[in-house]
Amino acid sequence: MAIVDSLRQKMAEQNVDCFLIASPVNRRYVTGFTGSAGVVWISATHQTLIVDFRYTEQAQEQAPDWDVITHDGLPEQLKQLIADRGVKAVAVEGEHITVAQWQEWNETFAMELQPVKGWVEELRIVKEPWELDNLRRAAEIADHAFAQLLPQVQSGVKEKDLALELEFAMRKAGADGISFSPIVASGPRGALPHARPGSRMLQHGDFVVMDFGCLYKGYCSDMTRTVIVGEPTEKHLLIYDLVLKAQETALAGVRPGVTGIEVDKIARDIIEDGGYGRYFGHGLGHGVGMEVHEEPRLSKLGKTVLRPGMIVTVEPGVYLPGWGGVRIEDLVLVTEDGSQCLSSTFKELYMTE
């Protein structure tokens, strides 16, 4: 298994005998096991999945290449394995283990655990072909759901009702769930980048920002479209066209060899030159995979160099307090010679009746 081999190489470099993975996302990535509890044990000679009674059969079915052990008490089971297998140094995911768990394991194992960071995440950052298939399907489902929703985006409809319809449409189209709670923000509430859908009813002249995504076989989609209820004013067109120009120009700049900082600057410069730089306060985008927010980042701090197989969002926005906002977001695959947009929904300004 290439994943396990890569982690064993990390272990050898750090002089540790065993690596324990407890993060649900990383556990699923490494083993294929989807249960809500369990610990992965990787050493030079063993790859073991340790679960409780609820998940024994599920683990055996989903992780056929792994030794499955059922525990009655996890710390004591790990202590016994450490003793039986002669382990002297144990690495754990420092960013995922709680302080209480850290203290309990240190005391039970009678050794100082070695915290490590990003070992599995570094492998997840470049997607395998089968992962890309799942991401493409998740994006297709989101596109389909949005098309189903558009006729319902009308004056007098509540934000939260549109959010529920989005979720229903994605699930009906084959999604396993939502990758995050949908954002539906109308009128002045569109100036809140992460607004929660509320009871506000859409009104004539509102921009409506809709940010949503689904889960398909453990992989996420993420897209945003902004539409207008009724006819746009000159200001509506100005802001929308500025964000669209920034988004499409930045999309064209996504390619291997550039950093997230460089792609972010493409969109940020356009919005700043248009006079609205201070109203674009978040990063241009982020990685998407088994989590809806992961590496790499397209932002002022995004130093990661893009490589083929990475998936990122490109989502510039302008948010004017008391008036509203615009955000346009696509899911993008970095290819060998550029990029490919996985979101297929049109981006011309949609005007409802």
Radius of gyration equals 23 Å
Q: Measure the end-to-end span.
A: 55 Å
Q: From the 3D structure, determine the CATH topology of the largest domain.
A: Creatine Amidinohydrolase
User: Helical segment tally?
Assistant: 10
Residues in helices, as a percent range: 25-40%
Task: Pick out the low-confidence regions.
Answer: none
CATH homologous superfamily of the largest domain?
Creatinase/methionine aminopeptidase superfamily
Average residue pLDDT: 96
Strand segment tally = 20
Amount of beta strand: 15-25%
Count up the domains.
Answer: 2
Taken from the alpha-carbon principal axes, the silhouette is elongated
- Helix and strand content put the structural class at alpha+beta
Give the helices and strands as they follow along the chain: HEHEEHEHEHEHHHEEEEEEHHEEEEEEEE
Biggest sheet record: 6 strands, mixed
CATH architectural arrangement of the largest domain:
Alpha-Beta Complex
Query: How is the largest sheet built, in terms of strand order?
Result: 4-3-2-1-5-6
Briefly, what CATH class of the largest domain?
Alpha Beta
Quickly describe the structure:
With 353 residues, the protein is of the alpha+beta class.
What does this structure look like?
The protein is α+β, with helices and mostly antiparallel strands. The protein folds into 2 domains: 2-124, Creatine Amidinohydrolase, Chain A, domain 1, CATH 3.40.350.10; 129-352, Alpha-Beta Complex (Creatine Amidinohydrolase). Helix content is 35%, strand content 22%. It contains 10 helices and 20 strands. The chain has helices at residues 2-14, 24-31, 56-62, 74-84, 99-109, 119-124, 129-149, 159-172, 234-252, 260-273, and strands spanning 18-21, 39-43, 47-51, 67-70, 90-93, 114-116, 177-178, 183-186, 207-212, 214-216, 219-220, 223-229, 285-287, 294-298, 311-314, 317-320, 324-327, 330-334, 339-341, 351-352. The strands form 6 sheets. A 6-stranded mixed β-sheet has the order 4-3-2-1-5-6. Strands 8-9-12-20 form a 4-stranded mixed β-sheet, covered by helices on one side. A hairpin with a 4-residue loop joins strand 18 (330-334) and strand 19. Helix 7 packs across helix 8. The longest helix is centred in the middle third of the chain and has 21 residues, at 129-149. The radius of gyration is 23 Å and the shape is elongated.
